[in-house]
Amino acid sequence: MANKRSLKRGISNICEELFTECIAASFYGAEAHKENAEALLFSVIRLQTEFINRVSHPEPGMSAKAYYKDLRIKFAAHVGELVDQINNL
């Protein structure tokens, strides 16, 4: 497992890229999709905040290796969903 700092940095970098892609899609997309793009921007911000907080405060009673593996799997799933939503804009 990487240290917490690099894990947080990776989460932040991925969320920054998603945020940028969402803004670009909203600029080049139709006017009707502006509200959807704003909702996606808030989703990206919530995702970043939630997962960075989860890195800082692991669940008690669960081994660290299992916790962070589960965290990475859940983060990848959420990112995949957001990417699909951005592509549909």
What would you note in describing this structure?
This protein is an all-alpha fold and 89 residues long. The protein has one domain (4-87). Helices cover 81% and strands 0% of the residues. It has 3 helices and no strands. The chain has helices at residues 4-28, 34-56, 64-87.
Q: Helices, strands, pairings?
A:
Blueprint: H1 4-28, H2 34-56, H3 64-87
Helix pairs in contact: 1-2, 1-3, 2-3
Question: With helices defined by DSSP (H or I, 4 residues minimum), what is the helix count?
Answer: 3
Work out the helicity level. over 70%
Coarse morphology: elongated
The secondary-structure class comes to mainly alpha
Radius of gyration from the CA trace? 15 Å
**Low-pLDDT runs:** none
Q: What's the count of strands?
A: 0
Count the domains: 1
Order of helices and strands: HHH
Mean pLDDT across the residues is 89
